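Kindly inspect this one:
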Amino acid sequence: MDVDSMRCWILALLWFGFTRIISLWIHEVGHLLFAFFILRIFNTQKNSNRTGLVFTKQNLMGHWSINDWLLTLIFAPSTFYINAWNPIHVNIPVQFSDLHTRMIHYAGILTSALVLAVSYQSQTLFPNLDAFQCHILKVSAVWTFGEALQSDLFGLFIQSEYHNVGHFFCGNFGALVMGSPKYIRNHIEVALEDMIKMTMLRGGQAGGIVTYFPSFFNSGSYTSSRIRIVNSKRANLAESIVFRLRIVERIRAIASVLHSIVRKIFLCAFHTVKQSEAAASNAVHRHVRLFQGHTRFATSSLVRKREAHPHRWVPPKMKTVWEKNVIQGGYFTKVSRRVEHFLTHNGDFDFMTLYVDEDNTVSEVHQWLQRVLNVENFGIGDSINIAGLLDLLCTQGMWFESVRLAYVLYILKHIDDEIPHGLIAKLAELFETEFELWNEALLQKSRKPLPPRPDSIDGDALMELYSPIDNTDILVLVARLQTALDTHYPDLLMSEIQRGVLCVEAVDAFFRNGMFQATVLFLERAKGSFGLTASNSINPNQVVIAAHGQPMFLGWDSERCNAVFFGSEIHAIEKQCKEFLELESTYGEIVELAVSEEKHGVPFSSFHAEEILLEGMEGEQTNEFLASMRESLFVDDVEVNELGKTLSNYTTLIGRRNQDGTQSSIQFRSFGLHDQKYVDPEAFTSRIRRFDSINNSSVPHAEPEEKFSLNSLLKKVWHDDVVAQDLKDLPRVVTQIDQEWRKETSANHAASAELTRCFMQLAHTNSLQGMSKRKSDHGLEFLVVGVEVSLWIAEQFVSDLAIAFPKIRAAAWSSNKILDALGTFRDASGPVGFNHGGLQTLPWTLNPKAIIILVTQSGVTFPTYHSAKVLERILPGRVFIITSDRTNLICGVVDKHSNSRGMCTRVITNCSGMRPAEPSSVALVASHHTLSCILKTLMAATFQEFGGKLEQRPFGMAFGSSELKSLYDAHSAFSQYTLKSICDGSTEVHRNLIAAGRHWGAHIVEPLFVVVLSTIYIVVTVTFTGPPVTSLANFSSTSSKWAQYAVRFVDSLIYVFLPFWTAMLIRIVTRRQLLDRLGKRTLVIADIPWVHQSLESFTSKLFSLSFNWMGVDVHGANPSDHFVHRFTHRVSRGVLLALGRPDGRLIALSKREADSILSVLQAKCIQNLGSGPEVFSVGHNPYQPRVLNRDKHVVLPVARKKFFCEEILGMTSGPNLSIHAIMGVQEKLISRKSTKTLETSGALVKARTKILNVEALPKMDHTVNRRRLLVGQLEDISMSRHNRKEAAKVEHPDSTVHASLRDALVETTLRHQSALEESNAAKDAQRAETAMVTFARLETNSILLCEGRYFSAERYTSFCVAFHAMAKVCSIWWPLHWDIAHSQSYLKVASTAAPVSAADMSRVLGKDDLAANPPSKFTLLDGASYHKQFASIHHKT
């Protein structure tokens, strides 16, 4: 290409870029013009400058910098609108209606269409342009018009308002580490990955982490490295974050080595100076690293990188910072530092009180922050606004930021007031000048020069060089600032009082408002729930952790003393730590951690410097001066406390000695929001607890990490099967529950004893005698609360409780409904569509001795956790918790109820520990079994107290010793044998379940094989061999033209129906139903409510990450209720029906099994082309209907003793009777129609005796209450029959009677006795029949209890094993594998503030405590409390 051609191409590209810029700019102006037109025509924003709102510099520039426009000029084809970093190009701070917003959108399309029309007439309109230039203009217009359609018709890039905050399921994590880079690589990175995995249980759609490194180019300054990742659907967020972090660490290590080499080579002359400068500033940070991270589950805004944490509003910038020397008593030095603040937040941010008596919404705060900080931000969530507020409030050592904060909060009066940035900058410059003079005067006052090298002087001598700043010095500084303000700005529109306020507040913010105090200020003014961490690059060895309405935990290992871990999830720190501490989240607590390092006895810590500084700020003279200055502002209803506040007491948390002889430690201080005081260190450390003293099984045992091998590689590719491990652990967990229940020294035994004591109080009140004596003890007596699976097993427990105690007033309610009715001050009417009449008056209708049980696995589920707080407030001491372990957050609600051994008697653990898998198997069965233990214990205690007192039966007690024996027997069989046989891979039952699951898995994975085989066929036939039929025809030399067409037609049919032929071939090979539908399958689970609901949740979570054509749609229904009505009209070929069958051999369950089988048979008989649903059933009854002979039925083992109804029916050794035959036998026993008269024939008596199987009588040992009478009656019948037979054999010889006469008399007597015996036999048979039938029917309660507690749990576990095998078959095929243990969001713990906001909960939970314990009087200069008081005084004046 010659020079002229290259010049032409360059000019053409520049012309293309220029036309692109013009067309893009015209498009944006079209948006703005129409927006201005709407504001003017519809008369909105009357009192505001419409032109200023619309035609801003940023909007006219499309929110692009000049560099972006120049890049568009050079790289014209770059897509303008599809920009993930800055997708909003028109930002109008006005709330438009939806119609107006769409009109503004379409205005951009119309404008681009107009440009396109002009371009097609360009040769006519612009005659100076040649044809080539006009053609480029057309291409540019078409390109822009296409982007306009994409952005304005299919996207949303005009933001008329910032939506209010939604709620977030998310979690914080992090660590403050004292260790070498090698230690961080070998231990901390692994620990962080484990923490992220546990924190992801709160949601893992996105995540991030930030850490700090020393700057190479600015000694003493630090730069951040922030990693933010939006997780893909099937990726592992923890591995992705740590992988990126490792890359950053390695690059940083290489850069450090290179920097050291360059420094030694080129900076030898300055080496000594540089080293001495960096030594003092970096002494604290040599062994310190901070890692601050977060995982997020988004609801109100889409998952975008800009919405991921850690958040930062203001970009990093080099600023002038006045730093206090870390040596105690040191003065300020002016340095240049890279300043940036980072925040992670869990919870919801509802309102912010910026000015007195005015709550501002998050959208209002967002707009205000953009004007105050003069930095635009396009985040939609709430957390980014907290980051902006911390940027505003964190002002320590920076005069511009301090003056800006004082001006906007204490000079301005309303959120809409204009921000004079120019004036603020001038005032800050003036204040900084005066401060510099003041600082120099202090140096002269000390009369001792600064040492050139502080690190070379002995510690004691160094301490003598400086004198602390006293309160007089602070008063002098305030006076100097006020004098300078009066001198340089005499015409400033401020009153004398306002000038004083500005000076005082600016000084206060400059000295006090570090990140810790900024967090205090924010939380005092904010409303919502907050679990947050904050840090900045000025002090990278410090981190602020706050909890208010959301949990936050600290953890460390006092033996290693190298790191403090923190996070929202306690199980995230449990693996790394031995001690932990929970922050006070109800009323709010803020903790700051900082690293201190000592050398020669001199402490290097920001805590020391701030303590000396605050001694001057809090002195008596300072307060007296400030109080007198504001005396004219005194208002009667505001009391000003002139006493200084208690200084922050810092205390060492952990410490270690470094290799160079220095002593490093991590110190802390804590501040309570409720009483506005620093927490006493002793009181703080007294809350420290050890994990090993609370739980021994909270975290499942982790296997050691395998070295690289093929097996480990496959595990990484196919994921470790956490669900299989849960199912394998199930028998062990259930056995451990029983052991803990029986062990008298265990905490569960103590809690069960306390629960029994509370229940017996209720029982005595509700006995037949107690009911006649009681007066007002009425209302709900037993309440069980849960959500999702916890609620479903709670409902089953309440149902079983009502069987044992028919007259008990018990209910199972969702914690969401309780919180919706009792957790808000707005409208306590409760949820719509729910009979919430009892909820409205729950605090008054609950029995004063009622028992409340809350079931929650994680212990941090927001509705259950806060329901526990509300219910504990209503009935203190009557709330019990069932959770995974005693470290869970909810345990803190009731931990004040302890016995003499210090055990909390209100917490019952299910011994399952933390289970990260979202499909719930072991956790659910463990909670269900724990409830079974509670029911069994309550029944045993009640029977022991009232068993022999028929006149005092509490709650209509409907059981005796026989029911208890049956329940205990079924309990032992379930935990000791049946579960093991189901979960143990060596048993036949387990193998049958696995085979059934894999068979169904083959159905579901069939589309994958169809696609693979069809692809292979197409590739081979098209690339290599050609179509097979055509190839055969060519081989046979078929010359007919029509024959060739026919052959090609056959090949085309093969290709068209290739998936069908392939599926048929697969089904023939695998011997499966040929004519089932192709494609995605549907699974319908039919069982009792809690089983089918829990299985539906379990199975759908197994397939939550599956590909669409390898997944399954899961539904559930009750076969005895609505199964037929909901699903028979949706039956199609290949539908998978999973049926759980109750044991119909038991008289109380025969009808239920018959109903279940009948419902499924109705669906099974709906067929098309000879094919219908496929049924897989699980149950204890081996009978299988003939219609289902080709379907799979797994018979569960029976390890319990037989019920009496089984014995009398003779089914222990007989053939498997159909359910209808069983019901027929039972009908004959129960029906009285076949018993005609007392003269029943001997044959009938014999037949009925055979049916009744009288031999079963001696096998029964039930002797209590009504059973005793029945058994005694049967024994009397047998005895009388035996006596009559013996009497017939007795001869009564009479010597006086002739032998012949005697023989005749004996014959006559025997004849009469024979007739009488036949009549008595009929009566005895009838009496025996009635007694035994009644005896069998009285077993109904014990059978129903065993079904609800144990038999159904066995079926649930069996289905879990089968469905897990089904999902495993589908999920292992690389590269289309997925993790069956998690969903895309990784959400297992719902910690969001729903259904009520955290602000409502704070008001509901805090109003009573504040009324009972009002906070102490606030100090005049007491942080946010003072700011509130003084702002109130100022605005009222």
